[in-house]
Amino acid sequence: MVKLIALLKKCGVILMLSWLCAVIFNAVMPQGVGFMPDELLKPLWRPATMLDTWELFKNGAMFIDSRSSQEYEQGHIPWAFNFSPMQAEMMGDMLAPAMVKDQEIVVYGRTASRWPAAVVAQMMRKKGFHKIYVMDASFEQWAQAGYPHNAEAYTP
């Protein structure tokens, strides 16, 4: 037991030294090593609260669900298209010419952390779409708040 505790202490010291070296490296090097992806650190999209998202929904914005197809089938915002980051990368070049570039587009996902919705939104923005939003809540939070989801009929 004493050997195990000594080993754990050594591992803890090594981890702390590694972390300290990483912090020093990032402080000294101009590029550093990113702890977060550019999609979250330097977003080309705008965040949207649930209330903002509701207004965009009522005004006819396009919605993109960035979750898996299985999650999408279990429930989604009405009329939302389902594109995971991989699908958006593959389909984006084909769909971009057919879509209106100034259409308001809201991307949402499975978590409020905006991942992977941020990846899809960043790709859309790079393809020339100007009004890209990422909902700052998950689909589950949207549904629990009583906003339209699944096949619910929506009438303005």
From TrEMBL:
<dbReference type="Pfam" id="PF00581">
    <property type="entry name" value="Rhodanese"/>
</dbReference>
<dbReference type="InterPro" id="IPR036873">
    <property type="entry name" value="Rhodanese-like_dom_sf"/>
</dbReference>
<feature type="domain" description="Rhodanese">
    <location>
        <begin position="57"/>
        <end position="151"/>
    </location>
</feature>
<dbReference type="InterPro" id="IPR001763">
    <property type="entry name" value="Rhodanese-like_dom"/>
</dbReference>
<dbReference type="InterPro" id="IPR050229">
    <property type="entry name" value="GlpE_sulfurtransferase"/>
</dbReference>
<protein>
    <submittedName>
        <fullName>Rhodanese domain protein</fullName>
    </submittedName>
</protein>
